[in-house]
Amino acid sequence: MHANRTDRDVAASNMEPWLKRRCSDPQLRLNAISPYYTMFPLAFPLRVLAGAERGWVLDPFCGRGTTNFAARLVGFPTVGVDINPIAVAIAQAKLASTTVHGVVARCQQIVESEAPGDVPDGEFWRWCFHQKTLEDVCRLRQALSDVQTEEDIVLRALVLGVLHGPRNKGLPSYLSNQMPRTYATKPDAAVRYWKSREIHPVYVDVLDVVRRRAEHVLSHVPDKVPGFVRLADSRTLAPDDFAMRFRYVITSPPYFGMKTYVSDHWLRHWFLGGPPYVDYASDPQLGRPSLPAFIEGLREVWTRVSQVCEPGALLVVRFGAIPSYEVDPVEVLRASLSGTPWKERRLCDAGSASNGRRQADQFQFVRSRSTLEVDLYASLEEA
Ligand SMILES: C[S@@+](CC[C@H](N)C(=O)[O-])C[C@H]1O[C@@H](n2cnc3c(N)ncnc32)[C@H](O)[C@@H]1O
Protein backbone atom coordinates (compact mmCIF):
# COMPACT_ATOMS: atom_id res chain seq x y z
CA MET A 1 0.00 0.00 0.00
CA HIS A 2 2.69 2.53 0.94
CA ALA A 3 5.54 0.76 -0.83
CA ASN A 4 7.88 3.73 -1.18
CA ARG A 5 7.23 5.40 2.10
CA THR A 6 10.22 3.81 3.81
CA ASP A 7 12.62 5.25 1.27
CA ARG A 8 12.62 8.88 2.19
CA ASP A 9 16.03 10.10 1.05
CA VAL A 10 14.58 12.28 -1.66
CA ALA A 11 11.87 13.68 0.59
CA ALA A 12 14.50 14.36 3.28
CA SER A 13 16.71 16.43 0.99
CA ASN A 14 13.67 18.40 -0.18
CA MET A 15 12.93 19.15 3.46
CA GLU A 16 16.15 21.02 4.27
CA PRO A 17 15.09 24.53 3.13
CA TRP A 18 11.72 24.06 4.80
CA LEU A 19 13.36 23.12 8.11
CA LYS A 20 15.82 26.02 7.95
CA ARG A 21 13.04 28.49 7.31
CA ARG A 22 11.17 27.12 10.30
CA CYS A 23 14.07 27.38 12.78
CA SER A 24 13.24 30.95 13.71
CA ASP A 25 9.50 30.38 13.43
CA PRO A 26 7.75 31.54 16.67
CA GLN A 27 5.33 28.61 16.18
CA LEU A 28 8.16 26.33 17.32
CA ARG A 29 8.42 27.94 20.76
CA LEU A 30 5.65 25.79 22.21
CA ASN A 31 7.92 22.80 21.59
CA ALA A 32 10.35 24.23 24.17
CA ILE A 33 7.75 24.83 26.89
CA SER A 34 9.69 22.72 29.42
CA PRO A 35 12.93 20.73 29.42
CA TYR A 36 12.86 16.94 29.50
CA TYR A 37 15.72 14.56 28.93
CA THR A 38 16.47 12.90 25.65
CA MET A 39 14.15 14.63 23.29
CA PHE A 40 15.06 14.00 19.71
CA PRO A 41 15.34 16.94 17.32
CA LEU A 42 12.07 18.14 15.83
CA ALA A 43 13.66 17.79 12.40
CA PHE A 44 13.68 14.00 12.80
CA PRO A 45 9.90 13.38 12.90
CA LEU A 46 9.31 16.35 10.57
CA ARG A 47 11.49 14.75 7.90
CA VAL A 48 9.36 11.63 8.03
CA LEU A 49 6.02 13.45 7.96
CA ALA A 50 6.46 16.49 5.75
CA GLY A 51 5.09 15.79 2.32
CA ALA A 52 3.74 12.39 3.40
CA GLU A 53 0.17 11.21 2.95
CA ARG A 54 -2.01 12.40 5.85
CA GLY A 55 -2.66 9.80 8.56
CA TRP A 56 -2.69 9.23 12.30
CA VAL A 57 0.72 9.45 13.98
CA LEU A 58 1.61 7.48 17.13
CA ASP A 59 4.56 7.74 19.49
CA PRO A 60 4.40 4.97 22.16
CA PHE A 61 7.43 6.48 23.99
CA CYS A 62 6.44 10.09 23.38
CA GLY A 63 8.56 11.80 26.08
CA ARG A 64 7.89 15.52 25.85
CA GLY A 65 5.87 15.06 22.66
CA THR A 66 8.28 16.03 19.89
CA THR A 67 6.68 13.61 17.42
CA ASN A 68 3.22 14.86 18.39
CA PHE A 69 4.28 18.46 17.90
CA ALA A 70 5.79 17.63 14.49
CA ALA A 71 2.48 15.99 13.53
CA ARG A 72 0.66 19.12 14.62
CA LEU A 73 2.95 21.30 12.49
CA VAL A 74 2.11 19.31 9.37
CA GLY A 75 -1.59 19.06 10.31
CA PHE A 76 -1.71 15.30 11.07
CA PRO A 77 -3.79 13.84 13.94
CA THR A 78 -1.65 12.28 16.63
CA VAL A 79 -1.47 10.26 19.85
CA GLY A 80 1.34 10.00 22.40
CA VAL A 81 1.84 7.48 25.20
CA ASP A 82 4.41 7.66 27.98
CA ILE A 83 4.84 6.05 31.37
CA ASN A 84 6.35 9.18 32.96
CA PRO A 85 3.86 11.75 34.32
CA ILE A 86 6.30 14.62 33.70
CA ALA A 87 6.63 13.67 30.04
CA VAL A 88 2.87 13.37 29.70
CA ALA A 89 2.21 16.76 31.32
CA ILE A 90 4.62 18.43 28.88
CA ALA A 91 3.47 16.49 25.81
CA GLN A 92 -0.20 17.26 26.52
CA ALA A 93 0.62 20.97 26.28
CA LYS A 94 2.08 20.41 22.79
CA LEU A 95 -1.40 19.54 21.53
CA ALA A 96 -3.34 22.17 23.48
CA SER A 97 -4.72 25.42 22.11
CA THR A 98 -5.06 28.44 24.29
CA THR A 99 -4.20 32.12 24.50
CA VAL A 100 -1.69 34.10 26.56
CA HIS A 101 -4.61 35.90 28.16
CA GLY A 102 -6.39 32.64 29.08
CA VAL A 103 -3.32 31.16 30.76
CA VAL A 104 -2.33 34.33 32.61
CA ALA A 105 -5.90 34.91 33.81
CA ARG A 106 -6.07 31.34 35.15
CA CYS A 107 -2.71 31.74 36.90
CA GLN A 108 -3.86 35.00 38.48
CA GLN A 109 -7.09 33.41 39.63
CA ILE A 110 -5.17 30.60 41.32
CA VAL A 111 -2.49 32.66 43.06
CA GLU A 112 -5.04 35.20 44.27
CA SER A 113 -7.74 32.89 45.51
CA GLU A 114 -6.53 29.42 46.40
CA ALA A 115 -5.30 28.53 49.87
CA PRO A 116 -1.67 27.41 49.62
CA GLY A 117 -2.61 23.93 50.84
CA ASP A 118 0.19 21.56 51.67
CA VAL A 119 3.40 23.68 51.90
CA PRO A 120 6.47 21.49 52.44
CA ASP A 121 8.84 22.50 55.20
CA GLY A 122 12.49 21.72 55.93
CA GLU A 123 15.93 23.00 55.08
CA PHE A 124 15.77 22.26 51.37
CA TRP A 125 12.46 24.08 50.87
CA ARG A 126 13.57 27.10 52.92
CA TRP A 127 16.68 27.47 50.76
CA CYS A 128 15.13 26.57 47.42
CA PHE A 129 12.26 29.09 47.32
CA HIS A 130 11.35 32.32 49.04
CA GLN A 131 8.45 31.44 51.37
CA LYS A 132 5.94 33.63 49.47
CA THR A 133 7.01 32.17 46.13
CA LEU A 134 6.75 28.65 47.55
CA GLU A 135 3.20 29.33 48.74
CA ASP A 136 2.19 30.46 45.24
CA VAL A 137 3.86 27.39 43.74
CA CYS A 138 1.84 25.26 46.20
CA ARG A 139 -1.38 27.05 45.23
CA LEU A 140 -0.68 26.17 41.59
CA ARG A 141 0.31 22.61 42.52
CA GLN A 142 -2.96 22.11 44.35
CA ALA A 143 -5.20 23.76 41.75
CA LEU A 144 -3.56 21.95 38.82
CA SER A 145 -3.61 18.52 40.44
CA ASP A 146 -6.71 17.78 38.40
CA VAL A 147 -6.43 19.61 35.08
CA GLN A 148 -9.76 20.16 33.36
CA THR A 149 -9.13 22.73 30.64
CA GLU A 150 -6.52 23.49 27.98
CA GLU A 151 -5.54 26.59 29.99
CA ASP A 152 -4.77 24.32 32.94
CA ILE A 153 -2.75 21.91 30.77
CA VAL A 154 -0.64 24.70 29.30
CA LEU A 155 -0.23 26.53 32.63
CA ARG A 156 0.94 23.30 34.30
CA ALA A 157 3.58 22.71 31.60
CA LEU A 158 4.67 26.38 31.74
CA VAL A 159 5.19 26.15 35.52
CA LEU A 160 7.14 22.88 35.07
CA GLY A 161 9.38 24.79 32.66
CA VAL A 162 10.10 27.69 35.06
CA LEU A 163 10.07 25.78 38.35
CA HIS A 164 13.86 25.72 38.68
CA GLY A 165 16.78 27.17 36.80
CA PRO A 166 19.63 29.66 36.98
CA ARG A 167 19.25 33.08 38.54
CA ASN A 168 19.75 35.93 36.08
CA LYS A 169 20.97 39.41 36.67
CA GLY A 170 17.81 41.04 35.25
CA LEU A 171 14.21 39.93 35.65
CA PRO A 172 13.98 36.37 37.01
CA SER A 173 13.08 33.61 34.55
CA TYR A 174 12.84 30.81 37.13
CA LEU A 175 11.11 30.47 40.49
CA SER A 176 13.83 28.68 42.48
CA ASN A 177 17.15 29.59 43.99
CA GLN A 178 20.15 28.92 41.69
CA MET A 179 19.74 25.47 40.11
CA PRO A 180 20.12 23.84 36.69
CA ARG A 181 16.99 24.00 34.54
CA THR A 182 17.32 20.58 32.93
CA TYR A 183 17.42 18.51 36.14
CA ALA A 184 16.82 19.20 39.84
CA THR A 185 19.80 18.93 42.17
CA LYS A 186 19.34 16.39 44.97
CA PRO A 187 18.29 18.13 48.23
CA ASP A 188 21.47 17.62 50.33
CA ALA A 189 23.82 18.67 47.53
CA ALA A 190 21.66 21.69 46.72
CA VAL A 191 21.58 22.91 50.34
CA ARG A 192 25.36 22.44 50.66
CA TYR A 193 25.86 24.49 47.49
CA TRP A 194 23.56 27.37 48.55
CA LYS A 195 24.89 27.48 52.11
CA SER A 196 28.57 27.39 51.21
CA ARG A 197 28.10 30.29 48.78
CA GLU A 198 25.50 32.08 50.89
CA ILE A 199 23.05 32.20 48.00
CA HIS A 200 19.71 32.96 49.67
CA PRO A 201 16.41 32.65 47.80
CA VAL A 202 14.84 35.91 46.70
CA TYR A 203 11.14 36.64 46.22
CA VAL A 204 10.06 35.82 42.68
CA ASP A 205 6.66 36.98 41.46
CA VAL A 206 5.17 33.78 40.02
CA LEU A 207 2.49 35.57 37.98
CA ASP A 208 5.07 37.86 36.39
CA VAL A 209 7.36 34.96 35.40
CA VAL A 210 4.40 32.99 34.01
CA ARG A 211 3.14 36.03 32.07
CA ARG A 212 6.50 36.68 30.41
CA ARG A 213 6.98 32.99 29.61
CA ALA A 214 3.42 32.68 28.23
CA GLU A 215 3.93 35.73 26.02
CA HIS A 216 7.04 34.12 24.56
CA VAL A 217 5.82 30.54 24.16
CA LEU A 218 2.22 31.15 23.15
CA SER A 219 2.52 34.14 20.82
CA HIS A 220 2.04 31.93 17.72
CA VAL A 221 0.54 28.52 18.40
CA PRO A 222 0.11 26.14 15.41
CA ASP A 223 -3.40 25.11 14.37
CA LYS A 224 -4.90 22.43 16.56
CA VAL A 225 -5.04 18.82 15.33
CA PRO A 226 -7.12 15.94 16.68
CA GLY A 227 -5.35 13.76 19.21
CA PHE A 228 -4.32 13.21 22.81
CA VAL A 229 -1.48 12.10 25.07
CA ARG A 230 -2.03 9.30 27.57
CA LEU A 231 -0.19 8.18 30.70
CA ALA A 232 0.27 4.42 30.19
CA ASP A 233 2.72 1.57 29.87
CA SER A 234 3.01 0.85 26.15
CA ARG A 235 3.62 -2.83 26.93
CA THR A 236 -0.05 -3.04 27.87
CA LEU A 237 -1.68 -1.19 24.93
CA ALA A 238 -4.73 -2.96 23.53
CA PRO A 239 -6.46 -2.56 20.14
CA ASP A 240 -9.62 -1.36 21.88
CA ASP A 241 -7.69 1.50 23.52
CA PHE A 242 -7.84 3.46 20.26
CA ALA A 243 -10.70 4.21 17.91
CA MET A 244 -8.28 5.18 15.13
CA ARG A 245 -5.66 3.18 13.23
CA PHE A 246 -2.18 4.65 12.84
CA ARG A 247 -0.29 5.16 9.59
CA TYR A 248 2.96 6.35 11.16
CA VAL A 249 4.79 5.34 14.34
CA ILE A 250 7.78 7.57 15.01
CA THR A 251 9.51 6.93 18.30
CA SER A 252 12.60 6.50 20.42
CA PRO A 253 12.45 3.99 23.28
CA PRO A 254 14.74 4.33 26.29
CA TYR A 255 18.18 2.96 25.53
CA PHE A 256 19.16 -0.19 27.42
CA GLY A 257 20.32 0.68 30.95
CA MET A 258 18.68 4.12 31.13
CA LYS A 259 17.04 4.71 34.46
CA THR A 260 13.82 6.60 34.95
CA TYR A 261 14.07 10.37 34.71
CA VAL A 262 11.79 10.80 37.71
CA SER A 263 14.65 11.06 40.23
CA ASP A 264 16.49 13.69 38.18
CA HIS A 265 13.21 15.52 37.74
CA TRP A 266 12.13 15.01 41.33
CA LEU A 267 11.07 18.65 41.87
CA ARG A 268 8.87 18.60 38.76
CA HIS A 269 7.55 15.24 39.92
CA TRP A 270 6.66 16.81 43.29
CA PHE A 271 4.84 19.65 41.49
CA LEU A 272 2.73 17.04 39.71
CA GLY A 273 1.65 15.51 43.03
CA GLY A 274 4.71 13.38 43.84
CA PRO A 275 6.36 13.27 47.27
CA PRO A 276 8.50 16.19 48.55
CA TYR A 277 11.67 14.06 48.35
CA VAL A 278 13.55 12.03 45.74
CA ASP A 279 11.59 8.84 45.18
CA TYR A 280 14.28 6.37 44.14
CA ALA A 281 11.90 3.45 44.50
CA SER A 282 9.73 4.32 41.54
CA ASP A 283 11.25 3.13 38.25
CA PRO A 284 8.54 1.54 36.17
CA GLN A 285 10.14 2.26 32.82
CA LEU A 286 11.45 -0.18 30.28
CA GLY A 287 15.23 -0.03 30.50
CA ARG A 288 16.39 -2.58 33.03
CA PRO A 289 17.13 -5.03 34.61
CA SER A 290 18.42 -7.58 32.04
CA LEU A 291 19.01 -7.29 28.31
CA PRO A 292 16.70 -10.24 27.44
CA ALA A 293 13.92 -8.69 29.56
CA PHE A 294 14.49 -5.33 27.88
CA ILE A 295 14.31 -6.88 24.38
CA GLU A 296 11.19 -8.79 25.36
CA GLY A 297 9.58 -5.57 26.64
CA LEU A 298 10.37 -3.75 23.40
CA ARG A 299 9.04 -6.68 21.34
CA GLU A 300 5.82 -6.51 23.34
CA VAL A 301 5.47 -2.82 22.45
CA TRP A 302 6.16 -3.34 18.72
CA THR A 303 3.62 -6.19 18.64
CA ARG A 304 0.93 -4.25 20.44
CA VAL A 305 1.57 -1.17 18.34
CA SER A 306 1.19 -3.25 15.15
CA GLN A 307 -2.31 -4.17 16.33
CA VAL A 308 -3.40 -0.51 16.29
CA CYS A 309 -1.82 0.33 12.92
CA GLU A 310 -3.21 0.14 9.42
CA PRO A 311 -1.67 -2.33 6.92
CA GLY A 312 1.50 -0.96 5.33
CA ALA A 313 2.08 1.46 8.23
CA LEU A 314 5.55 2.92 8.68
CA LEU A 315 7.58 2.49 11.90
CA VAL A 316 10.60 4.74 12.38
CA VAL A 317 12.73 4.11 15.48
CA ARG A 318 15.68 6.13 16.70
CA PHE A 319 17.77 3.94 18.95
CA GLY A 320 21.23 3.86 20.46
CA ALA A 321 23.33 2.84 23.42
CA ILE A 322 24.51 4.67 26.51
CA PRO A 323 28.22 4.53 27.29
CA SER A 324 27.81 2.78 30.65
CA TYR A 325 25.96 -0.14 29.00
CA GLU A 326 27.81 -0.91 25.82
CA VAL A 327 25.54 -3.06 23.73
CA ASP A 328 25.15 -3.11 19.97
CA PRO A 329 21.97 -1.05 19.46
CA VAL A 330 21.37 -2.50 16.00
CA GLU A 331 21.47 -6.05 17.33
CA VAL A 332 19.19 -5.14 20.23
CA LEU A 333 16.68 -3.37 18.01
CA ARG A 334 16.63 -6.13 15.41
CA ALA A 335 16.19 -8.77 18.13
CA SER A 336 13.23 -6.81 19.50
CA LEU A 337 11.60 -6.65 16.05
CA SER A 338 12.06 -10.33 15.25
CA GLY A 339 8.86 -12.29 15.58
CA THR A 340 6.76 -9.13 15.11
CA PRO A 341 4.86 -8.18 11.93
CA TRP A 342 7.30 -5.30 11.24
CA LYS A 343 9.68 -5.80 8.31
CA GLU A 344 12.91 -3.81 8.32
CA ARG A 345 13.34 -1.62 5.22
CA ARG A 346 16.25 0.65 5.94
CA LEU A 347 18.83 1.48 8.60
CA CYS A 348 20.93 4.64 8.77
CA ASP A 349 23.23 6.46 11.17
CA ALA A 350 21.16 9.04 13.05
CA GLY A 351 24.16 11.19 13.90
CA SER A 352 24.89 12.14 10.33
CA ALA A 353 23.60 15.12 8.36
CA SER A 354 21.80 17.85 10.29
CA ASN A 355 19.97 15.68 12.79
CA GLY A 356 21.24 17.64 15.76
CA ARG A 357 22.81 16.33 18.97
CA ARG A 358 22.64 12.67 19.78
CA GLN A 359 20.27 11.77 22.57
CA ALA A 360 22.99 9.78 24.32
CA ASP A 361 25.02 13.02 24.60
CA GLN A 362 22.32 14.54 26.74
CA PHE A 363 23.22 12.28 29.64
CA GLN A 364 26.27 14.34 30.47
CA PHE A 365 28.55 11.37 29.93
CA VAL A 366 31.50 11.62 27.62
CA ARG A 367 30.39 9.70 24.59
CA SER A 368 32.56 6.71 23.89
CA ARG A 369 33.60 6.18 20.29
CA SER A 370 31.54 3.04 20.02
CA THR A 371 28.29 4.80 20.92
CA LEU A 372 26.07 4.75 17.90
CA GLU A 373 22.61 6.07 17.22
CA VAL A 374 20.62 4.68 14.34
CA ASP A 375 17.29 5.26 12.62
CA LEU A 376 15.52 2.09 11.60
CA TYR A 377 12.60 2.17 9.15
CA ALA A 378 10.19 -0.76 9.05
CA SER A 379 6.81 -1.34 7.49
CA LEU A 380 3.86 -3.36 8.67
CA GLU A 381 3.46 -6.44 6.54
CA GLU A 382 0.07 -6.70 4.88
CA ALA A 383 -1.92 -9.49 6.57
C1 LIG B 1 14.17 8.38 24.73
S1 LIG B 1 12.78 9.00 25.60
C2 LIG B 1 11.76 9.64 24.29
C3 LIG B 1 11.96 11.10 24.11
C4 LIG B 1 11.05 11.70 23.05
N1 LIG B 1 11.42 11.25 21.73
C5 LIG B 1 11.10 13.23 23.12
O1 LIG B 1 11.37 13.86 22.10
O2 LIG B 1 10.88 13.79 24.20
C6 LIG B 1 11.98 7.50 26.02
C7 LIG B 1 10.66 7.67 26.73
O3 LIG B 1 10.08 6.38 26.92
C8 LIG B 1 9.32 6.44 28.12
N2 LIG B 1 9.03 5.05 28.53
C9 LIG B 1 9.89 4.16 29.10
N3 LIG B 1 9.27 2.98 29.31
C10 LIG B 1 8.00 3.12 28.85
C11 LIG B 1 6.88 2.25 28.78
N4 LIG B 1 6.96 0.99 29.21
N5 LIG B 1 5.73 2.71 28.23
C12 LIG B 1 5.64 4.00 27.79
N6 LIG B 1 6.68 4.87 27.85
C13 LIG B 1 7.84 4.44 28.36
C14 LIG B 1 10.18 7.23 29.08
O4 LIG B 1 9.42 7.77 30.12
C15 LIG B 1 10.76 8.29 28.13
O5 LIG B 1 9.99 9.47 28.16
From TrEMBL:
Stated name of the protein: Putative DNA modification methylase
GO terms assigned for molecular function: methyltransferase activity
GO BP annotations listed: methylation
Sorted UniProt keywords: Methyltransferase, Transferase
InterPro entries: SAM-dependent_MTases_sf (IPR029063)
The keyword Transferase is annotated on this UniProt entry: yes
Gene3D superfamilies, sorted: Vaccinia Virus protein VP39
SUPFAM superfamilies, alphabetized: S-adenosyl-L-methionine-dependent methyltransferases
Originating organism: Alicyclobacillus acidocaldarius (strain Tc-4-1)
